[in-house]
Amino acid sequence: MTMVKKKEILFVFGLFLILFCKQSSSECKQLTPCSCIFSNRQGYSLMPLVDSMPLKALDTKLNYTFFFHPCTNKPLSDNKTSECYKGDGVSLCAMKNNDTFFWGKAEETEISLDMDNSKPPVLTFHHNNITIIIALACCSLCETRLYVEAIKSESEFHLVLSSLYACKVMMHTNSLSVGSTLLIYFSVVFGVYFIGGALTLKLLRGATGWEMMPNHEFWRNLPSLVKDGVVFTFNCCRLDSYERI
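Structure for Cation-dependent mannose-6-phosphate receptor, as requested:
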């Protein structure tokens, strides 16, 4: 393998690591149906709205009325025979001409962000052939309200939830234990050691097979070394071991 080829492979590998780390750090991991968190402990959470009344939005063009209760399910209809009332309720419901439509439970909520994370996330519900997208809008001086942004078709609806609670905040989560932290560090170090070492030996020395493992002679002899150590330890506890010495 020529030096130019090795440099090209190293460049591609380095670029992949950079993109992977950037993607991981910019991802907002969904914690609950209404919250997500970044690696820096910032995130978004609508949990303060759990105990509030359901939000309501009207569309005068197609005569739709939307009811939305973030985070948890709740009966959203006065009609006890409606799907929006049965059981523990729903998170998203709509009405049109006295007809009630059940369009999503809290556990069906999907949270996603734009690639550049310049805007708050959107909540997406997919129910049968219906898609409802609720965009969060950060407004620190506004009252929480829900309104219709656009109705693309009878199967795609776009709403906006404007609220103080749609702004990015520091998330308070249970910290990892010392053991969990050490386990993560241990796994990362060993992963870098074995994978990085194997790639280095492969690219720089042309190693193949067992020789790609860093310090492969040590790891190959490790079982016998452990066996000798165990035998030595047990022999030290016996009186005749000193007599043989």
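The first strand starts at residue 29 and ends at 32.
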